[in-house]
Amino acid sequence: MSLEQVSNTALIVAFLLYIISAFLFVIAITGKKWSDRDPKEHTLRWSKLAFSVTIVGFVSQIIYFITRWIYSGHIPNANMFEFMTLLSMMIIVGFIIIYLIYRSAGIGVFALPVAFIVQAYAMVFPWEAEPLIPALQDNWLKIHVTTAALGEAFFAVGFATGLMYLIRTVNFTGTSKKDRRATRGIEFTIFAILVVVGFIGSVFLFNALDYQAEFSKEVIVPAEESELEIEQVNTEEVKYTLPPIVKPYKSEITSMDSYFGIQKPLMEAPFWMKGVNAGRKLNTVVWALLTGTLLYCLLRLILRKPIGAKIQPILSDLDPEDLDEISYRSIAIGFPIFTLGALIFAMIWAHIAWERFWGWDPKEVWALIVWLFYSVYLHLRLSRGWQGSKSSWLSVIGFLIVMFTLVGVNLVIAGLHSYAGV
Amino acid sequence: MIQNTKCECGHQNPVNTVLCESCGKPLIEDQSMEPLEMRYDGVVRRSQRGTKSVIDVVWSFFSSVKVAIYLIFLTLCGASLGTIYPQENTFINIDPATYYPETYGTMGEIYYTLGLSHTYDSWWFKLLLIMIGTSLVICSLDRVLPLYKALSKQKIRKHERFISRQKIVYTGEIKGIQDEKEAEKWVEEFSAILKKKFYRVTTDGSALLAEKNRFSRWGPYINHIGLIIFLLAVLLRIIVPGWYMEQYMDVLDGDTVQVPGTNYYVENEGFTVEYYSEDELAEETIEKGKVIPELFETKAVLYECVENCNDPFMEPILEEVTRHPIQVNKPLKYNGLLIYQMGYEETPLLRSVNATLKGRESGEEYGQFVLEMDNPKSNYEVGEYQLELVSYYPDFKFENGVAGTKSSDPNTPAFIFSITGPGLPDEGEINMYFPIPQHKVIYQEDQVNEAAGSTLVIDVGSMQDVDFSIYTSFLSARKDTILPMIWVGAAISMIGLIMGFYWNHRRIWIRMDGKQLLLGAHSNKNWFGLRKEVALALEKQGIKVEPKSLENEVKKS
């Protein structure tokens, strides 16, 4: 087995172990009502088991990290696959630290799924290691990206426990306006997570089926932008790996496998989506929303009540105030690390590589927005009435902003950080 | 209404004090039993004083955390608007008034009209930053001084209601305590336990105050000081002329260019670029036909002008000061001046040729001369011949029977010489010369010269006689005098954050009234840790309690 194969296998093993340990944590909590056992001892034993499996998974992930570093010749945090994997690894680090402080099995029930969903998302991107462009060949790549990811990981743990607080405390059967709004909010958050899961699922499914479709589109290059100073018509090509529900605006089919008996794209992207890639990205979003909705409806049909309401009993033994404090603690631990990694180290490196410490590049701006948002959170925590559910909502929204900064900016806005492979 | 501000313990408090500065008794009578608001230990801040002058109004506006939160929130929203479309400064040569509508349609036009294409330079964004700065200063001053005062003169024996309304409370009877002496002894023992936990303990008879990590309370203020220094540095950077410089230079291989606005000149002695080989790249990248540069570098020499500087009629005299191979993460540094590698472009431009003068028929060589594309000399002596440069067209064009030049870049260099010498007419023989072979063909050099009756040919022998510049290196020169202040600000801010977030200020109060033990504890964060610590300490004294049960049960109404 080559080093690359060892590395990839170790990563898949880690991923599977995280899924298993999440289930073990669920058993640690729900299983204590089973007959013939002492509830306290049951939780203790199963939590220990679940935590050990997590640790084994973490070790396996570290093996991936080190072997990949060796065979690719650089620290694996340079493209989207590597970065998201690093983030998932850091979420596990954050989880381990917070778990060792609070020793509550409940944290695992939510933090581990966040970690393995992030890991699965990473796996959607091309796995192959790319050599570094000159701008990235610096020690600051190791320092800046790793610290920033660790800070963000603590925000992820804060998000997981914040969401737990909300699911734990919301009265799903309540009929007051406040209860209904909270129920809707939680269901929407769960729906959003399912959209991500749906996206990952459909990409894996159609990759396994080796699905392909190709489109070409004629792009007119105006005279003043072309080298020969005459109007030119260029043909741009785009490859779809998800079946085209939406094709790029004004494009022709080069080749297309049929799917579910459908031979042609159902729709065309709107005119203001100019590039061929805009059409492809829109198609991906449509697939994510479709599969997400499908998953959500399916779950609702099976469970016959709001999904949050079904999760609530798992959390019934956890003290809401503890959850609130754990969420706050994780964010409070993460904030200085994030400041150091995503802002200060970033500024130092930007000064060395890009001749200015701050340049309002979209990624920089969004890192600043994350920082400002969590400063608002920390200041609001000082005020009466902002503990508990309000601050939990903030921790959920905050993590959404973090994910937009990490993924959305590259998908939608790009800029100097666009080498990340998307 | 006249408020009686004297506490029953005899301490005279300022108006609007929440908790007596001395004994901690709640002064605002609300009879409720819910946990006390412990911020700044209930002392009155300047912003809460009764009378209000104009300054007081401004002061209390900026001292409000609520206002600060709104300011941060507005800044956050404003900053996000600037990322919708690329900002103007990301382009080097565009007219924003036409660029945005053309590229992004109606939305682009709106974006430009609203001034969002330069969000971070707009007056409102700067105003928000200045207001945040002001808020940082005033919020901190308004709180840190009273807090310092309150923490430095704490009374040990606190009022019962102060202790019983803390968030962590324990009350119970201690068996076997008969008199005041034994109560004091119990407190002594407890104090020893807390001291082992690194508390600083002071006792007053049967009352006790234990405290640790008070320094963490200063964390937020130190962080704010760091941020203020940072923001001031950013401000000074804009205001003070000469403290910040930003210049861009395109330097052709082999050229020397002045760093605009300075006495420095930078020479590109040679530019190299290396690409990754195919076996180093991912398959997909190769499929797409992409190449990835591994390294690019400008062998740069920095000169300082010592004489004839800024004199348009004289060649400046340059003295080498330093040399450095500039790469992306390795700028040239000299005396506060930094020169960075920004990028490069392939520009196959002819720089000079080592031309040979030959007989057209005989092919006999009469001599060689170096002809430069940039500023050629007006006279050349080649063997026995004199070449006088009549015209030079760096970017030759021939339109409507007239020769001209499109630009000053030597893209299509063309020379017209008048040659005198043995066997030539006195008024000279006209010779047209295109150094680049394909131009010779396009513009029919030979035919033109033959028609003019030329007997000589100017030619280059081999590629070794041609000096090409293949790359233009894009360099950027920066001077940022204030930078150390920026780093100092960031470092202070970071120290403050670490102090404030990784330690927490814990206090425990005890008073014994006869057998009755009353314990209260307060922390600014991490109640979980404090509960555990108190429970552990009590256990050592033989009182078994669940940490969770220490939480004050009276919840907010």
Automatic annotation (TrEMBL), chain A:
Ranges that cross the membrane: 6-29, 49-71, 83-102, 109-127, 147-167, 188-209, 285-303, 331-353, 365-382, 394-416
Membrane topology label: Multi-pass membrane protein
InterPro entries (UniProt xref): Cyt_c_assembly, Cyt_c_biogenesis_CcsA/CcmC
Domain of life according to the entry: Bacteria
Domain Cytochrome c assembly protein per the UniProt entry, residue ranges: 289-417
Keywords tagged on the record: Cytochrome c-type biogenesis, Membrane, Transmembrane, Transmembrane helix
Subcellular location: Membrane
Designated name of the protein: Cytochrome c biogenesis protein CcsA
Native organism: Chengkuizengella axinellae
Gene name as annotated: ccsA
UniProtKB/TrEMBL annotation, chain B:
Ribonucleoprotein among keywords: no
Pfam family, one: ResB
Transmembrane segments: 54-81, 123-145, 221-244, 482-503
Membrane topology reported for the UniProt record: Multi-pass membrane protein
UniProtKB keywords: Cytochrome c-type biogenesis, Membrane, Transmembrane, Transmembrane helix
Cellular localisation: Membrane
InterPro entries, A to Z: Cyt_c_bgen_Ccs1/CcsB/ResB (IPR023494), ResB-like_domain (IPR007816)
Ranges of residues in domain ResB-like: 65-430, 444-534
Keyword S-adenosyl-L-methionine assigned: no
Protein name: Cytochrome c biogenesis protein ResB
Organism name: Chengkuizengella axinellae
